[in-house]
Amino acid sequence: MNTVSPLAPERFPDLPEIGGVRVATVEAGIRYKGRDDLLLVELAPGTAIAGALTRSLTASAPVDWCREALTGGRARAIVVNSGNANAFTGRAGKTAVEHTVAATAAALGCAEREVFVSSTGVIGEPLPAESTIVQKLPGLARALASGSWDRAAGAIMTTDTFPKGASATAKIGGRTVRIAGIAKGSGMIAPDMATMLAYVFTDAAVPPDLLQRLTSRAVERSFNAITVDSDTSTSDTVLVAATGAAGNPEPDAAMLRGFARALEAVCRDLAHQIIRDGEGASKFVEIAVTGAASARAAKRIGLAIANSPLVKTAIAGEDANWGRIVMAVGKAGEKADRDALRIGIGGVEITRGGQVVPDYDETPVARHMQGQDIRIAVDIGVGRGKATVWTCDLTHGYIDINGSYRS
What we know:
Distance between the termini: 13 Å
Shape: globular
Strand content: 25-35%
Radius of gyration: 22 Å
CATH architecture of the largest domain: 4-Layer Sandwich
Number of helices: 11
Helix content: 25-40%
Strand order of the largest sheet: 9-16-11-15-12-13-14
CATH class of the largest domain: Alpha Beta
Oligomer: single chain
Largest sheet: 7 strands, mixed
CATH superfamily of the largest domain: L-amino peptidase D-ALA esterase/amidase
Mean pLDDT: 94
Number of strands: 16
Number of domains: 2
């Protein structure tokens, strides 16, 4: 286990039990020793499911399975293993998924199309599902219980330094509903899906089509607005399951506004924790872009800044080198006005009218750069589009972790 990130929360949050959801974890010895690396989630009959999956053209076998299974809109089980991504494993990868799905369906008495599978870890190594996962599933099924979110979040980690969880409540038709989610991610983070794995559960009753609409929007504003290293994983998966145990009335879109905000808040919290656990990260960075030609353009500009190694290393070195931000805006490929560009760091305006503001004093900016939470604001000066993205700095720790990942 790597040293816990300096940006980690003090402890794992207290997540509520979600009616219709039971979990169990076990050490299967897939790659890691002395820790749980296999998670089984059982969902009540009739649970609606929605999701977002990587657009990577080298997607893993589990992603292929989930993409097809999502068309059914219902789920009874989610199985997640860490240590092996079951990606780029040919026919053997597909067979491993099929064996896992069949064994899970048999253990829980459900249809195979209601079983969802995720794998995360090393790419290109066959997953010995028969000798690891399949043998453990009957015992996992017997051990299923409510709660244990911290164990569930821990079982899906790879290079993560802390387990990630978040929760919220909302009302639908006067009935309180609960939302709880877990996620893993630390490196190979640059969403395109939907990066990473995230599972969100709610006791709300929400039809699959509406749930998918809300999930897609929440993902776009959270997991799709973060980046650690600009690399999109072969295994990125977000699944949102709604069991209906809260007994709320059948909702329409208007009734789900509060629920939509709560779902987005949970996804954003999890996404921020992933950035705070970025491999080698020492600073959490928020980049707010305004005045772009469109929201899409603002996001592209924000990600160009967030993914720039020059910007990220300057932040790591606590160097208020705003010129690197100018560079990143210019390379983004979106409309920009050099002479209208405005940049601020830590609430201090640095540029205006295409040049440094008169009497600019770098002292407060340099002081801000020494903190753990860095705020960058950029106004492009060409329109009304805006977006916020989040990233971390780039330190030598990132090289240390990824240079020895398979060792």
